[in-house]
Amino acid sequence: MIDRAARRAIIARLNDYFRLTGKDGWHFLSVEVSSLPVPVKDEIVSAVRAFDDFVPAFDAMGEHDCGYLVVQGQEIVWKITCYRRDHDKSLVPDPINPIVTKRVMTIMSMEEYRDVAL
After folding, report:
1. CB-CB neighbours of 108 under 10 Å
2. Where are the domains of the chain?
3. Tens of pLDDT, residues 41-95
4. How far apart are CA 93 and CA 99, in angstroms?
5. Would you say the pTM of this structure is higher than 0.85?
6. DSSP string covering 20-59, please?
7. Mind listing the pLDDT tens digit for each residue in 32-44?
């Protein structure tokens, strides 16, 4: 059995791989972010991929599943959520097993994040 620290480290590596490569998951831009000019959106996506400033306020568990950054004056939050590949919502996904887990990243404005988090 894997201890919690090792499990979180595996999840962080898988989340980093997904965030950096965009492979094996889905990416969504929120309404507000998608309405920005294309060059700004491109810069935001590049900044999210290059992100490495993980702080407890957005990454309390150390799983690299959420981050905050500012791009061209836009406060941006990105969040990775894990879902089952078979869409069966009755069971909790196993984020260390990429065979059964699909990662989904949402990139949104801080204002949209606050609306969702409340």
Report:
1. 22
2. 4-117
3. 999 999 999 999 999 989 999 999 999 999 999 999 999 999 888 877 766 678 8
4. 10
5. yes
6. HH-TTEEEEE-HHHHTS-HHHHHHHHHHHHH-----TTT-
7. 999 999 999 999 9
